[in-house]
Amino acid sequence: MAREYSTLPRPSVLPGPAEIFAPVSRKLRSVNRALRSWPGRASPVLLRMARQTVSKQGKLIRPGILLLITGHLGYKGKNDTILAAAVEAIHLASLIHDDIIDRSAYRRGEKTAVERFGPNLSLLLGDFFFIRSIARTLCSEDPEIPQMLAATAQKMIEGEMEELEESFNLNLTPDRYLKIIEKKTASLFQTTCRLGCRLGGTGRKEETALAEYGLNLGLAFQVIDDLLDLVGQPAETGKTAFSDLREGRVTLPLIVALKHQEPAARRELKRRLERISRDQDRASISSLLAIMKRSGAFRLTFEQALALAGKARQAALALKPSPHRQSLLQLVDFVLWRKK
Q1: Are β-strands 110-111 and 106-107 bridged in parallel, bridged antiparallel, or unpaired?
Q2: CA-to-CA distance for 24 and 268, rounded, in angstroms?
Q3: Please, what is the end-to-end C-alpha distance for the chain in angstroms?
Q4: Using 50, 70 and 90 to split pLDDT, how confident is the model at 10?
Q5: Within 13 Å and on the Cβ side, how many CA atoms surround 243?
Q6: Do the Cβ atoms of 87 and 70 come closer than 8 Å?
Q7: Is the separation of the CB atoms in 230 and 148 below 8 Å?
Q8: For domain 10-337, is the CATH number 3.40.140.80?
Q9: What phi and psi, each to the nearest 5 degrees, are found at residue 213?
Q10: Cα 238–Cα 239–Cα 240 angle in degrees, nearest 5
């Protein structure tokens, strides 16, 4: 897969999430238990939906980052698992709402909440996770924590709205794209790091470095996600090429491909992308991908992610050495070279 967009060799040894988060594996299991218990004495339908959704969750990257940071800072309490669960709940809520908007039946090969429960119940389930995540932090001794989570949730919603506003806009600029994904995706990564710093206690220098780490890791994560929509293997990503465009999202590879065409070729590429977006030209997907590859769009998009990952790596290197810092560094490579 890497040959599709990079001349750089893929690392021969690339740790997966289980190895990366090994230093905090016990606490990650506690996060999962906390999320399962959150509905409490809620109605049976909410309890059933919430537990099914939690059981389908992914790699726990965001809570894992928070726990790595508190571990690096020597935090000994239990509030980090509650806070990590709150971060994951916000992420789950955003995915549920995304899938409702996009009418997505599957995510990573699994049925989405909207497919299992329908749009009405799924919308309420997403609202529950948003509200519950902030409510669980209101008892924190640090009043800034729930405020930070609420502000980040607002940013994520704004990012989603701005992305919807730009649906099918093939004139979208790289700067506008980056501003949208900063709100929609990277803001939660950055806040996760800042929350870990507040809980673990650290100086301004380390807090600034970790906030920079989270921001750039989140941006790189989304750029690679958008690249995988086009060059990833459907069996691994759980979706076919141009799924994002069919849902209205104009991503960086498309923006770059259009930018690096002569006017006549750009008009033709736009016409073909518009047909793909309306699901009217499935037969030409292979040839369209070949055009984009020849334009250098995949390579240039990966180079953008590589630069962002480099900034995240440099920020993490500003921390004192520890097993937890090593995991944060390994996570940069995982995000950059993942296949799904």
Answers
A1: antiparallel
A2: 51
A3: 11
A4: confident
A5: 23
A6: no
A7: no
A8: no
A9: -60, -50
A10: 140
Query: Which is nearest to 146 in space by CA: 128, 127, 133, 159?
Result: 133
Give the model confidence (pLDDT) of 221-243 as tens digits. Answer: 999 999 999 998 877 777 788 99
What pLDDT is recorded for position 1?
40
Is 137 in contact with 146 (CB distance < 8 Å)? Answer: yes
Work out the angle between the directed axes of helices 204-231 and 174-181 (0-180°, nearest 10): 120
Give the pLDDT confidence of 176-209 residue by residue, as tens digits. Answer: 999 999 999 999 999 999 999 999 998 889 999 9
What does residue 101 show for φ and ψ, rounded to 5 degrees?
-60, -45
Both tokens of 280, joined, read 């009217």
Query: What are the tokens at 320?
Result: 């004192």
In whole angstroms, give the CA distance from residue 104 to residue 114: 7
Domain residue limits, the chain: 10-337
Residue with tokens 């409702």: 100
Phi, psi of 110 (to 5 degrees): -110, 150
Instruction: For residues 158 and 156, give the distance between their C-alpha atoms in angstroms, rounded to a whole number.
Output: 5
